[in-house]
């Protein structure tokens, strides 16, 4: 069981009004198999749309002992960028 966070590169999908750059999910199977499903356009609708738009999906974080309950808790934050190491690096001022 694993919770995981995907980051869409190089830019978010959607419109100026509503966009997303992350997908947070859960799998009870192999994370590798689930990631392949997303990359083949057979995962969540948002990841399929990202693939269709030519985005790259990057696995940026995992919670190895994650449960469905943890996935729901993380999703309730509605700020997936807080959990993303790529977005955290962008905010660091040099």
Automatic annotation (TrEMBL):
InterPro entries: GIY-YIG_endonuc, GIY-YIG_endonuc_sf. Residues 17-80 form the GIY-YIG domain. Gene3D superfamilies: GIY-YIG endonuclease. This is GIY-YIG domain-containing protein. It comes from Gloeothece verrucosa (strain PCC 7822).
